[in-house]
Amino acid sequence: MRQFARVVGYTLIDQMRQKSFYVLLGVSLLLVLMLKSCYTGNYSVNGQTMDSASVAWTASRAAFHVIGYASLLVGTLLAMSILRRDRDQGSMVLFLSRPIARWHYLFGRVVGVWAVAAGFMFVLHAAIYVISLVSSGGVLPWLLAASAVCFANLLLATTLVTLLSLFIPEVMAALATLGIVAIGAALDGWFYSFMQSDIGKQALASQADRPMPIWYLLWPKFTALQTFAVSMTDKNAFHLTSGILPVVNTCAWLAVLGVALWFRFERENVGGAE
Amino acid sequence: MITFSAVTKRYAQTTAVDIVSLTVGAGDFLALLGPNGAGKSTLVKMLLDFVKPTSGTVTIDGAPSTSPASRTGVGYLPESLRIPPHLSGREFLLRHASLCGLAGPSAASEVDRVIDVVGMRGKERGRAGTYSKGMAQRIGLGAALLATPRLLILDEPINGLDPIGIREVRVILESLRQKGVTIILNSHLLSEVEKTCTTAAIMNRGAIVAQGSIGDLVRDGETLEDVFVRVVRSDSPQRG
């Protein structure tokens, strides 16, 4: 495990040395800081004055989602070329010529990239937390815990794109991963909206005895997990049972993709052709 | 020390290594020779578990090459070495020292030792992106020499080196050979091979077509190059 930890550490250091990472983080923080202005505005809807703190907290939850998706993009872009770059730079053969198991190297790289993306996301989510604390004196409860729940999404995305990059060009792997996220977002977003409508509620009642389609249950639940995480910040919206499907789905996909990635990489020829 | 037992590697339409059996004893200094595409690099890759053999087994001191433990005490210098450009030579060596199991002051002192051995003192803190090919090659050799390996595998080690560097590498390898380190050298510079190696195995089209001590292979009045050309040419029509 020491070798695994070393590879994670080297990956973190190498990624954190990229100036572009800090530029992206800085720009993102500036955008998040704009939320502060939401706390000082005056809002009214249909003539009724809205509590600015409530509006700001709603905007903060929306920003939470945006940061979650942006972090998925960052994680996917970082992970898509990690193995190809190692192969091209000769780092892969140098690592694997040492007494290090292939899976230590492989998952060390994946976890290192995941940690960078998770750190990026957590810093931005923490900025929301601090802004709400400073601007309104109150906090969005459980927001940092919700951010931690979304770490699973990032790990799933980095594992998926790394696995796909072993079969198809890395750009295609990244697009495929983001496509899966987007389709899931559309499905879960559409499904949620539909279920809130009168027609949807009637349909739900009439279909109570019929199981959900298998393909819907199996589709990776990036958005559903993120929605469940956000619900943790609003006690009125939080239902523990609503998290069962996305959590189980995400853990199952992590297990399946992790095993597939290990299996494929164990048989990978490294070091180029003769 | 190293045993290749009837090792074969096939890719789709090509047989890169064709039922090769070879034993390298402890302390041997073996040159692995052959024309391009002969299977030399594939054989080395199977030794380091970069490539899985289609059949046969490879062992290092009795341990299967697929086991990470078999690579304890193994130093490897690849042909096309590229050090991550954002790392300094010293940082690169420290990483490899820790992967060898060294830590803290012992890693630092071992890195300092190999920096002096490969002649990179004063240049080790520069970014690898600023290194010449020869400087990068010296750092790569230094990484292979960390933790005093018992087995050294070198693929074109004098690539990019000037004549002084070539001589320095020759001296380093000779001193390692005298200490009993087993060395496998893959090189096209047969004049250097003839000066440094004790044994040679010549491969052609995936098979070993000649092997033995340099003294036995090279007849009177011949050079190793003459032997190479003679053996390879005589092999080509026979195994058509």
Walk me through this protein's architecture:
The complex is a heterodimer of chains A (274) and B (240). Chain A is an all-alpha fold and 274 residues long. Chain A contains twelve helices and two strands. In chain A, strands 1-2 form a two-stranded antiparallel ribbon. The radius of gyration of chain A is 21 Å and the shape is globular. In chain A, 38% of the residues are buried. Helix content of chain B is 37%, strand content 25%. In chain B, the strands form two sheets. A six-stranded mixed sheet of chain B has the order 6-7-8-3-9-10, with helices on both faces. In chain B, strand 4 and strand 5 form a beta hairpin. In chain B, helix 2 crosses helix 3 and helix 3 crosses helix 4. Classes of the chains: A mainly alpha (274), B alpha/beta (240). The interface between A and B is medium-sized, with 24 and 34 residues.
* Biggest β-sheet description of chain B: 6 strands, mixed
Mean of residue pLDDT values of chain A? 85
Number of E-state strands of chain A = 2
Strand order of the largest sheet of chain B: 6-7-8-3-9-10
Please give the largest β-sheet of chain A. 2 strands, antiparallel
Broad shape of chain B: globular
Strand order of the largest sheet of chain A: 1-2
Name the assembly state: heterodimer
Strand percentage of chain B, roughly? 25-35%
Question: What does the overall shape of chain A look like?
Answer: globular
Low-pLDDT runs of 5+ residues of chain A are none
* SSE order of chain A, one letter for each helix or strand: HHEEHHHHHHHHHH
